[in-house]
Amino acid sequence: MLRPLQGVTMSEAIESLLKENRRFEPPTDFARQARVSSREAYDAMYRESLDDPDTFWRRETSALVFRTPWTKVLEWNLPHARWFLGATLNVTESCLDRHLSTATATKTALLWEGEDGSTRTVTYAELHEKTVRLAGALKQLGVQKGDRVAIYMGMVPEVSVAMLACARIGAVHTVVFGGFSADALRDRIHDSQAKVVITQDGASRRGQVVPLKATVDKALSQPEAKSATHTIVYRHLGSERCRIDMKEGRDAWWDDVLASAPASCEPEIVDAEHPLFILYTSGSTGKPKGVLHTTGGYLAGAHVTSKYVFDLREDDIYWCTADVGWVTGHSYLVYGPLSNGATCFMYEGAPNYPDWARFWRMIEQHKITILYTAPTAIRACMRQGDTWPAKHDLSSLRLLGTVGEPINPEAWVWYHQTIGGGRCPIVDTWWQTETGSIMMATLPGAVAAKPGSTGLPFFGVAPDVVTQEGDPVGANQGGLLVLRKPWPSMFRTLWQDDERFRQGYFSTIKDCYFTGDGARRDEDGYMWVVGRIDDVLNVAGHRIGTAEIESALVSHPAVAEAAAVGRPDDIKGTALVVFVSLRPGSTAGPELRDKLAEHVAKEIGRFARPDLIRFTDALPKTRSGKIMRRLLKDVASGRESTGDTSTLEDLGVLAKLRQDQE
Ligand code: PRX
């Protein structure tokens, strides 16, 4: 179901973005050496990618290892695409083995800093060695091609090893963000029927211990998670900081299984369409969706976008701040950069720990050249003022990226001036868990950036803005953002739910993939994405389904009904506001408010805790009984409702809500 945008109406959002007309041409020095160094070069490659995808993708994937080349580039039986038909490969050969016979073998693949300031480096050769050992260990545990393995870890180099080890043997990983609760982990293990869980004792976050293994214990103690018969536990914090219990016969230490595993493990060569991973994401119902990505197309997308969008160079130190539990971490911390032989920086902890200079100190210390982060982090840093970045030498930076939500021009300009010193191009990248890799970007060196716009389509991508009926709208008109053609890294289905895949993405607009976003395209063809227009909220860059929050709340005995909506927020982009009506006998008040927030944290994870819980006697409903979220959104944002309220059953409910606010 489509609704007005989070917190704002489509026309308001578009109006504010329409006012933005600054252009930032690619810096001359950057453009001179860029991989795509002019608009003409971009146009030619873009045209080729659509007109002759076979030639385009053969050339652009030539650095990757395909054991058998493809015989046909694409088969498109809407909504199902198959790319690179007949090709066989193992992604770890492209990410690791291919580098071993070159100087890249001794190059740092991962440069890591823990929250406590300790550092580690892992070369490509070492990453390979760890990966094949863990792959062998997984085999010894009985994991076979196609089996699922859940990964519940923090930001340590071993999380990349765990993902690659699964890929090495053709197992399908499902990484569960370490901020998810035991119940959420249990649900994902159940849905994917994962056989093994790879975890670590604990992770550091703002100086506190995140008890990952203990959470796995809780998840596995429930019958729904019985498919997982083994865990592998990486010792990160050690027993002094994080005591854990090991269950005999089920839990094994990472070091022990690696020590007893064979030193080599031949890669399982799989079909290009073999599943690589499942990543759960929020949708419009309470049940998370298992987005399924396959091997050849996903790797091609992650590889080629990393190379061009970040203009990756041999000597770059590249930092993507995303957690590996989200898709950005998968594509731009693991598969994309490693398949390009890049050096990736990985940071374990919080951006403001111990203070707001943390990011900038690490950039100076590690001479980071590319920074890829989210608007919410940029806005939070901006709010702290320029003194923090001013303490550090940021001159190593040459490119800045942003992802996850629309960036407001003010934050864009701050990022450009204060962090990038006015000399670094900013790539605003639009994409989704479902798209696997970047779909639109202000390609650095090739095109001018306009603050707030995600620029032009990446190669092979055909976006359009259409009406609800599917008709293209004119320049600067708002509409629904769709993708008209299949692209290699597109998800192939939803795990065990192909019907939801069809219905959710391909039934709204005929013959197109519907993104769930609203957008407008300006007279230069630049896209301005304004945000979700479905039942999904983007809170501080985290994708949260309103239905997930609502079903978590109504599972609490005190709650009769709940409605979750977004409200514009200066830092988070959108804040999560919930309206709750209680069952008879329950008393509204601060105590229950805390209990309900805790309940959401337990059901989903702390990151999904509502920013505000409001108690109400009743929720505004239509005569047919549907909750009118649009009105609640207006109330939450302190706006007058301009829309139609004629279907509202009881206007008194709305008046009361407004009154309570005042
Ligand atoms: O609304 C869009 C927003 O994030 C959504 C996808 O969320 P997720 O699957 O969690 O993936 C996030 C990281 C790829 C999109 O539907 N979004 C992502 N990037 C941008 C964006 N909105 C505006 N500008 C962006 N650059």
Automatic annotation (TrEMBL):
Binding-site list for Mg(2+): 554, 556, 559
The entry's keywords: Acetylation, ATP-binding, Ligase, Magnesium, Metal-binding, Nucleotide-binding
Cofactor: Mg(2+)
Chemical reaction(s) catalysed: acetate + ATP + CoA = acetyl-CoA + AMP + diphosphate
Annotated AMP-binding enzyme C-terminal domain residues: 548-626
Residue sites binding CoA per the record: 205-208, 328, 352
GO cellular component: cytosol
Enzyme class, spelled out: ligase
Chain sites annotated for binding ATP: 404-406, 428-433, 517, 532, 543
Protein family: Belongs to the ATP-dependent AMP-binding enzyme family.
Protein name, as recorded: Acetyl-coenzyme A synthetase
Organism of provenance: Chondromyces apiculatus DSM 436
Gene this chain is encoded by: acsA
